[in-house]
Amino acid sequence: MATTVAGLSSAEAGDATLRTALEQFHRAADHLKLPDKHREILTSFKTVYETEFPVELDDGSFRVFKGYRVHHNSARGPVKGGIRYAPMVSLGEVKALAMWMTWKCAVVDVPFGGAKGGVIVDPHSVSRAELQNLTRRFTSEIAPIIGPDRDIPAPDLGTNPQVMAWMMDTYSIQRGYTVPGVVTGKPVAIGGSEGRFEATGRGIMYVLAEHLRESGGLAGRRVAVHGFGNVGGVTAKLLTQGGAIVEYVCDRDIGLYRKGGLDTFSAYAHVQQGNALATWTGEAERVAPEDVLYADVDVLVPAALENTITAANASRVRAPLIIEGANGPLTTEADDILAERGVTVIPDILANAGGVTVSYFEWVQSRDFQRWREDDVNAQLQRYMVDAYRGVAGRCVVGADRCNLREAAQWIGIERVIEATELRGIFP
Ligand code: NAD
After folding, report:
1. 3-state secondary structure 33-50
2. Which residue has its alpha carbon closest to ligand 1 atom 14?
3. How far is ligand 1, taken at its centre, from the CA of residue 227, in Å?
4. Is there a contact between 223 and 204 (Cβ–Cβ < 8 Å)?
5. Is residue 323 in a domain?
6. What pTM value is reported for the model?
7. Does ligand 1 have an atom closer than 6 angstroms to the CB of 327?
C-alpha cells in the first residue's frame, strides 16, 4: 500500500486532505454566518463516481485499477477539474480537490463548478501503451458523466497533454465526431490553447508580482520551489525570468541549492526532455528534498503535494511568505502556526488558478474552433489573476476583524457560489 512521507496510508492522507478542505469551509461559513441550508448544500457532493476496471498489460495479462470522478458543485456552470494518476489517490483526496476547484473557479470568476478525478496508479510503473489503454478505458468508464457542457477534465499530477489527447479521442470516437471541448490541457495541434502548459506557473508569477508590487516587485527575491513538475518547474523558470533568484528546487528524489540562483531554465529543459532532476549537471549543491521547505529564503513555493506542511514541521519553515503552487500543501494546523508567526500565505485557490483560467480560455476556443495568440492568452490571464488578487487582498482590508488571504479568498468563492445557488433556486 502506498504511504506518504509522514507514513500515512492513502486513505488516511485523503481523509486528512478532506478534513482540511472542510475545516477551511466551516471557518469561512462561521465568519459569513451561513445558514445550515447553505452549509449542507456546499459540503455535499453532486456526483461521486467510483469505478474498477481491467486493463490489458503488455505481457498479455491484465490488472484491475480503481478510479474516481467527483463533481462537487455545478451552481456556476459545468464542472471542471484535473485527473490525477498517482499511487496515493483516494476518494477523500478527490473530494477535497473537487471542493477546492469550486472555490477556485469562483475566485477567478470563470463560469465553472468544481470537479476532480484520479486513478490509483504510479504512471512511471506502466509502459506508454499500458498508460494509453488505462486512459482510454477510464475515459469510457466516466464518459456518461463528462462532456463539454457537463464536466471538462484537465491534466493534474501524473497526467499531461498526451493523456488529454487520448481522453479527447476516446470520447470523440464514442460520439462519432470530434469533441475538442471535452477536455482542456490538450496539445495545441489538436485544439489546445497556446499558453496552457505554462498557465499555472505563469499565474503564480503574476499573483506574486502583484503581491510584491508596492514593496519592490520580484527582482532580487530569493525563492525556494518544492516540486519541479508542471507547476514547480514553470514557476521556477518564470520567477527567474522575472528577476527573482531561485536558490532551491527539488523533486521527489533530490533537492538542489545554489547561492545566487540556479539555472532554472536549463534544469527545467532537462526535466522536460524526460530526464531526472538528479542527472542535471548544472552548478548546484545537493540537499534533501524536504530541506527546500525549510530554506532561509524570502518566498517558499510548495508545488508538489497536499499536506506537505503540517503541525509537525510548520515551525521549521523560515520563509516569511508562502505562495501555494500545489493544492492544499498546508494543513489547517500549519496555517494557524504560520499565521501566529506572521507568515503570509497566498492560498492555492487564488495562486494556482492560472491553470483553470487558461483552461477556460481553451474551452471557449475549442467550442468555437478559435485560435488565440499566446500573447493574447497571457495578457488575459494576467488580467484575471491580478483582478482576482486585488479582490481578495481588498476584501482582507475592508472591515474584517481577523482576516488573512486564505479566508478572504474562501469568503469570495463561497459567496459567489451561494449567489448562483440562490438565483437558480432549488428544483423542484
Ligand atoms: P507534476 O506531476 O507535473 O509534478 C509534481 C512534482 O512534485 C514532481 O517534480 C515530483 O517529483 C514532485 N514531488 C512529488 N512528491 C514529492 C515529495 N514528496 N517531495 C518533493 N517533491 C515531490 O504535477 P503538477 O501538475 O506540477 O502538480 C503539482 C501540484 O499542483 C498538485 O497539487 C496539483 O494538484 C497542483 N496543481 C496543478 C495544476 C496544473 O495545471 N498542473 C494546476 C493547479 C494546481
Report:
1. CCCHHHHHHHCCCCEEEE
2. 252
3. 6
4. no
5. yes
6. 0.96
7. yes
